[in-house]
Amino acid sequence: MSGSADITETRAAAQHVGSPVRLGRSLEQILWSSCGIVAVVVLWQVGAVTGFLPTRYTSSPTAVLAAAARLLASGELIHDTSVTLFEFSVGMAAAVGVGIPIGLAAGWYRRFQYAVEPYLAALYATPSLALLPLLVLWFGIGIRSTTVLVIISAFFPIVINVMQGVKTVDVALLRMARSFGAGQGRVFREIVLPATVPFLASGLQLGVARGLIGVIVGEMYAASNGGLGYMIAVSGSTLAVDQMFVAVVIITAIGILLLGATRMLERRLQHWKPRALE
Amino acid sequence: MSDSAVQPPFRPFRISERATIGTISVVLGVVAWETVARAGLVSPILLSSPSAIAAAFGQLLATGELEKHLLVSGREFAVGLLLSIVIGLPISVLAGWNTRAGWFLQPLVSALYAVPTVALFPLVIIFLGIGFWDKVLLVFISGFLQIFIATTTGIRATDRRWVRLARSFNAGQTKLFWSVVLPGAVPYLLLGLRLAVGRCVVNVVVAEMLASEAGVGYMIAFYGNTFKVAEVFVALISVVVTGVVLNQLLLMVEQHFGRWRPTVR
């Protein structure tokens, strides 16, 4: 099969999504795509059943499903998931609530930007997860240190993106508004804020991804009252591999859902905009 | 505030307002930190102070402890990243070049990519134990995923016109790959490598924090647990500096390789 033809064809297929001519092709694609996942799951199960894989360490798909059912019935899964979601949402709310005003101010007031820039750059470059031992020292083991880690993880991408958004507002628009006698407040509301929205959205996406990792690692490192990361750490140290897979799958599902939601929000907020050049 | 978006005209031989305000702000911050710590407003055990951090840095450097741990982390990082390049590149080139291989591998990689890598660390420990290779594997996983995604994207983004052009001039598969597809994918590859390096540094440190007996992450966790905040800051700062230096180096490489192409964007 010719590789170059494949390349051109894939691009063509990408450009004609949904056209009936390509349906046969996409059916083949679906087949191949599902092949990989199915093969892994089947091999995993077969290996576990035949004793080729050490089930003690690798578990098996059916064992994971059974563990999920067990955890769901005992209410453990719901408890841990809600602890994680609680920490995540409180942290995100704080990061957004503080991050947006500071980002707007840093983008709008040049001198303020110069003053906070070194701090933002230094802390943005710091892996927030590495701050965990300090946070535990300052806020104790449990919900508080994890929530603060979420705030720190999500705060900087949001602030920096919002700041960039305000700074890249079209100068021509600003001049025009001023020529028509618009005041500071009006310019800010009608021109700066709408122009910042796409940047805010990408900051949110980064923030959500980082915040989610923050919750999990925070709970893995130091948790006292549950959470999915705690579940992973505990089942890891007690060799309950099936439980660990349940927790990992749920975290991944939450991540995919949340990122999908932020992407939808982004599209929604940009709806009014004329299509930009790609 | 006047036109905030209008850049002031560039004036050489003048200290910029940006540098001045930035420096003043940092100096004020450091002085305030030191004052608060000296005045005992917050327990020095929790806050430490710039002078204590400097002293701790000098001491850790003199005893060779910092170097030792940096070397351990550096080795884990380097071996893991190297493996992810050596193994990841051929696989991702195959997945980008051959459509069916791509269809087969893409969902697997996407599924793994959606998992926070660190969440897999307890599993990795079960397989490999606590030591050197567990960190290497964690670094390998995160590096591999990043390189795979960047490289396959780069190969698929090959301009169709160039492919047609090459074919019109009767270029064979091999020629097409080496002269058109691969050079086009290099910027993507380098970007992927830079992202991979960033993630791998974080993962080494976090893995060492969670379970290890040496390394910078171990330092952070150990000194945190023993209430030696100054030492924690020293380890943290060395991680940040390493990350920034590596990032800048790769950025330079990226710009170097990007120079030959006419500016598109």
Provide a descriptive summary of the structure in words.
The complex is a heterodimer of chains A (278) and B (265). By secondary structure, chain A is an all-alpha fold. Chain A folds into two domains: 3-53, no CATH class; 67-269, Orthogonal Bundle (MetI-like fold). Chain A is built from twelve helices and no strands. In chain A, helix 10 packs antiparallel against helix 12. Chain B is mostly helical and 265 residues long. Chain B has one domain (65-258): MetI-like fold, CATH 1.10.3720.10. Helix content of chain B is 78%, strand content 0%. Chain B contains eleven helices and no strands. Chain B has helices at 17-39, 44-47, 50-62, 65-97, 99-114, 121-128, 133-156, 160-168, 173-210, 216-225, 229-258. The two termini of chain B are 32 Å apart.
Structural class by sheet pairing and helices of chain A: mainly alpha
Largest sheet of chain A: none
Q: What is the domain tally of chain B? A: 1
Biggest interchain interface, per-side counts: A-B, 75 and 72 residues
Q: What is the element string of chain A, with H for helices and E for strands? A: HHHHHHHHHHHH
Order of SSEs of chain B: HHHHHHHHHHH
What is the CATH superfamily classification of the largest domain in chain A?
A: MetI-like
Task: Give the CATH architecture of chain B.
Answer: Orthogonal Bundle
Low-confidence runs of at least 5 consecutive residues of chain A: 1-21
Mean pLDDT of chain B: 87
The helix content of chain A is over 70%
Going by CATH, what is the homologous superfamily of chain B? Answer: MetI-like
CATH topology of the largest domain in chain A: MetI-like fold
The N- and C-terminal alpha carbons of chain B lie at a distance of 32 Å
Number of helical elements of chain A: 12
Number of β-strand runs of chain B = 0
Q: State the separation between the terminal residues of chain A, measured CA to CA.
A: 32 Å
